[in-house]
Amino acid sequence: MPEGHKIHRVAKAFAADFAQVPIEASSPQGRFSAGAEQITGKMLTDSRAVGKQMFLTFGDATVLRVHLGIYGMWDFAGAMAGPVEVDARIGRTGIKPLVGADQDPPEPIGQVRLRLLTPGPAWRMADLRGPNTCEILDPQSAATVMAKLGPDPLSYRGTRAQAAAEFARRIANRSVPIAALLMDQSVVAGIGNVYRAEMLFRARLNPFVTGRELSAEAVAALWVDWVGLLKIGVRTGKMLTMEGISAKAKAAAVADRVDRHWVYGRAGLPCRVCGTDVSMQLLAGRKLYWCRVCQA
């Protein structure tokens, strides 16, 4: 499932390439025909990511809410200039090779729930497949959905201090492991399995310590780390979580996800710090990775 940095990059792509022009919306698959009819011909006025969800607002305040889930993805084509990298694997948000201005938009491939297309020779196109949620909302309903989400550092409607305080409030006095709290989108929006494992390792926190057992300083440090990692992810398109490494190791991390993380996806392999085999177990149905020594 794409984590928060990916959704922010997609929101930026929509803001850069689809805003302030009439959008032609259709549902080649047919499952979203009624929804597409409500936004076709309208201008995109706002593109906002909140955690793993995206909210596109059109001229009459109609809101398109999209949550990709595990299998959803956007494919882009045309004269795109926004920050979306090439990555066409299932479950990943990607961009197709640019199509020349002298060519027509390609025919839909597979089960395209929604196609958004800009007019003119320098057309841009976005195809949505397999989302967990794709729905039309009025402004009040959209605000209600957003209010149920935890703070997102890059879209919080308040000060940075208020966002940090909101995060701390949603963790304090909870008798739930911090590893589960970080994955709870009502606690903090945008963190997924990769960032969860890496943040806890970077903080040398036992993933099974509960929210009420954490000091205020530890919670504050987690938030600061998340803000920094999310910004890196949005800027680079990659979940780069290792610091204090050589230039060669950093280049390897950028080039290949196998070399990108401290513990995520490394079950049974030696910890990069102490050499102990990295542990893995299911927590709330998701794989949790950690080092029993470094995070004792």
What does this structure look like?
The protein is an alpha+beta fold. The chain folds into two domains: 4-147, MutM-like, N-terminal (N-terminal domain of MutM-like DNA repair proteins, Alpha-Beta Barrel), CATH 3.20.190; 160-290, Helicase, Ruva Protein, domain 3 (Orthogonal Bundle), CATH 1.10.8. It is built from eight helices and eleven strands. It has helices spanning 4-17, 33-39, 139-147, 160-171, 178-183, 193-202, 216-236, 247-255; strands at 22-26, 42-50, 53-58, 63-67, 73-78, 94-95, 112-117, 124-129, 133-137, 279-283, 286-290. It has a nine-stranded mixed β-sheet with strand order 6-5-8-7-1-2-3-4-9. A hairpin with a 4-residue loop joins β3 (53-58) and β4 (63-67).
What topology does this entry show?
Elements lengths: L3 H14 L4 E5 L6 H7 L2 E9 L2 E6 L4 E5 L5 E6 L15 E2 L16 E6 L6 E6 L3 E5 L1 H9 L12 H12 L6 H6 L9 H10 L13 H21 L10 H9 L23 E5 L2 E5 L6
Parallel strand pairs: 5-6
Antiparallel strand pairs: 1-2, 1-7, 2-3, 3-4, 4-9, 5-8, 7-8, 10-11
Summarize the structure.
Pfam families: Fapy_DNA_glyco, H2TH. Residues 262-296 form the FPG-type domain. This protein is α+β, with helices and mostly antiparallel strands and 296 residues long.
- Give the CATH topology of the largest domain: N-terminal domain of MutM-like DNA repair proteins
The tally of beta strands, per DSSP, is 11
CATH class of the largest domain: Alpha Beta
SS content category: alpha+beta
Shape field: globular
What is the chains' assembly state? single chain
**What would CATH call the homologous superfamily of the largest domain?**
MutM-like, N-terminal
Q: Could you spell the SSE succession in H and E letters?
A: HEHEEEEEEEEHHHHHHEE
Reading side by side through the largest sheet, how are the strands ordered?
6-5-8-7-1-2-3-4-9
Tally of alpha and pi helices = 8
**β-sheet strand percentage:** 15-25%
Main sheet attributes: strand count, strand direction, barrel closure: 9 strands, mixed
Corresponding CATH architecture of the largest domain? Alpha-Beta Barrel
